[in-house]
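Reviewers asked in the last cycle whether our approach scales beyond single polypeptides. To address this, we selected a multi-component target totalling 1002 residues and predicted its structure end to end. The input consisted of the following lines:
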Amino acid sequence: MLRMRSLLPPLLFTLAYALVSLGVTNSYYQLILTLVPVWAVFGLSWNLLSGYTGLISFGHAAFFGIGAYATALGQIYFDISPWLLIPVAAMLGGVAGLLIGFPTFRLQGHYFALAMLAYPLAILYVFEWLGFQEVTLPIKRDAPVAYMQFADPRFYTLLGLAIMLATIVLTQVIERSRFGMALLAIKQNEAAAEAAGINTLAWKLRAITLSGAIAAAIGGFYAQVLLVVTPQSVFGMLVSAQALTVAMFGGVGTVWGPVIGSVILIPLAEILHAEAGARIPGIQGVIFGIAIVCVILMAPEGLFWKLRDLLRKRSAPKPTVDVTPEAAAANITALKPVARQRAAKGDVMLEVKNLSRSFGGLKAVQDVSFKLHKNEILGIIGPNGAGKTTLFNLLNGFLKPSQGEVLIDGRDMSGQRPHVICEAGVGRTFQVMRPFLRMSILDNVVVGAYVRARTDDQARKFAADAVARVGLSAVADRVAGELSTKELRLMELARAIAGQPRILLLDETLAGLGHGEADEVVAVIQQLARDGMTIAIIEHTMQAMVRLVDRFLVLDHGAVITEGLPEVVTRDSRVVEAYLGKKWAGHAAN
Amino acid sequence: MTAKSKITISRRTLLAGASGTLIASRAAWAQQPSEVKVGLLVPISGLYARPGTVMREGAEMAIDHINAQGGVKALGGAKLKLVVLDSGDTTEKAKNAAQRMVAQETDLVAASGAYLSSFTLAVTEVTERANLPMLTLSYSDLITERGFKYVFQTAATAGSQAKQALPQLIKLAETASGKRPKTVAILTDNTGASIASAKAMREGLLAENQLQLIVDETFTPPLADATSLVQKIRSAKPDLLFFLPTVISDAKLLLEKMNEFGLGQGKIPTISFGIAIAEPDMLQTVSPELLQGVLTCVASWGAKGHEALIAELKTRYKEPWMTQNAISTYGDMWVIKDALEKAGKADRVAVGEALRTMDGGPSKYYPLGEIKFDEKGRRVGAGMTIVQWQAGVPVTVFPPELALAKPFWPKS
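The resulting structure, written as structure tokens, was:
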């Protein structure tokens, strides 16, 4: 049902576009109608990588050009039909994506963008050097259709539309699947995604391979439309820029963005060129540039998001009328009074042996050893800079230890990538929250579920289950951007438990919460422990901690000062001095 | 917020409206028998606007002259009307412009264009399918190797130019200095056109002409320093230097360095290919003294017999001299006019047929050969010109029948 509903708009749009184009006999307008889907598809291919992962590629012309040249040269030298060459071009583009992605994904942010810029420019010179400055497709007068050479230009438009529809549907399928979720998670926060069990490198490579394949296919089709291929026209800066322009104008990270951008910008540029340019040569570029600047200023994320936000505000008055946060809160407080029996010492789930990590001369964690038993709540405390978060980063794989071992179920996992450790059953939350603001609570949580879920349906089930466990079911459909800090903390918790971990690492989950709010979250954590979860928690709020944990581990200057039951630890003079300060020293004496 | 959404909607409506009017205004064009339309599809915006503008100037002058002399007599003195279309600065824009030309200017009888070979290749893919005769000075061999019937190449093809140039240069050196050159140096940047010319010379042309290659250097523009290149040339002392820059700053740098080393002003004859080194823009950065004596081989140039045209171009458009772009496009208009006279009707297919079969005798505006096209659409006997910088002006010095000045060659 959901699938059909999402299929309908692109189908209707394509049909309407096809009907309009069938009525156009002027070959010039028809050419423009053909170019619109071409650039839309190119924008979509860019969007698939850069829109969803947030890794901006300035070099998509590399794939486009490879496709165009493969299609042109295949016809010239091997007399193969473009019907066959375009799929071949797609494969080459995919391989190119893989080859380019593998080394380039080591870089992030601006460095990635700039590195991508280099590929088409380098390839451009290679093709010039090879002597392919100007390549023209041979005319096939005897078998035009077999070589995709139509006398009626409307066939090109229809073919372009077919490719566009296929790309839209493919993008939609990806958007809704584990694939799309993984990419979105990477865009929001790559580290958090890794921690949620997503093998980010593998997903990024899949994205660039697919993106490269689509770009190359449409590049091949473009060669067929243009009939002439030159390095500048397929590898040039302007080609890469075209993908960015249509996608950013229309909206990044949505299937409709590049389509909207292309439908508006391509005809606009041509009309300006034909009309204004005839009077004042060059003015078309000025008007076009100003128009884009204005739209970007008014709708920085693109037209699609601007329009969607406007429509949402107008049509959906208040989605929270019946489901107030108070209702959700009430739900949680109901859990509160049940006191938890302190856990008896069970099997060792996690064992840390002589773990050390230094940054240059600074020993952030030195020689830390402790055991985490099944179904216990271990509180890790210590003053600021004691190395608590560094310890967590060592446990979940963000950092590699300089020395020592982390045994999970008796297996040494130290130095493994975060997603591997997540798969082994360790979930974590972050001191600084990493919500995916544009996504609903449920979708936010689904990202964390894929590490265990085999199918999309199972992931939804796990996520719904996790949302229920933290008491957010009533507000599950709200967008994360509208939530309070407490709800966000609970949502992060849900994301961590959606992956069905056995061990949960909670980093200052109570930070920034008011008194009553902290109690609600504590109640949820206690309930989790009752349900069999093993938990290690870093926290500053002493009051809540004393009631919550079974045992304390106290760190100072990266080393363990002491560990033991809360009553004992809070009275330990070393702890009081190192961490609690003079005010508490008096209390301890009493 | 609501106000903003209204703006978006109204802008869209406006756009739709604008394109609607556009279609309507274009559709109603009645053919006027007293006027015959000729197209000119050249870059008048973007990177190549300058040469495109010069081409338009040449075309406008020709149209004025033709009309002043009574128009097309076979059509009752019908006047020619120039329709200029901007090919922009990319192959895609050029192709779009060509499509617009054939779709909306349906009464064109012929056209000229489109400056860059790659633009011409794309444009002629469109005009060929629309049976619109297209004259071009682009000289890529590819243009007339596709079996097209409506493309007419007025300049010698690149392959033919390379073959023609060397013997002519040797002849020129012998006439001017009395000595046959034996050794050459090649100094080329790695852009497409330069690489192609240098490759042809390395792979056979030099050997055919008994020239020995003693320095062969390729650089990537822009040059940061030309010292090491010039030192190699000074120590090797070649009889000829082939210097193929595309970027004006590279030309400046090398010529200045040559002068500094005492090799300038033709002491080692410096020869280029193409128009880059003889564009009026050169004088904006390079002093005339440094350019003195530099030669370049081009498809066409203002030459003997064009004095009046060169003067008119100077006064009317403030162009300091007549490059291949102006004279060649000027000639194109006359050829189209002659074809109209032969066809006897303002019809593109008839004009195409007339161009294919015409025999207009010796060429007046293109160098050498005849106004006659072979089965490929190449002008029969198309020659080329060699131009030399003399006192701040590149003047035609070869072939002798077109030369406006004697070539200047060092005596030592």
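Chain B touches chain A through 47 residues (CB under 8 Å). We regard this as preliminary and will revisit it once experimental data from Aim 1 are available.
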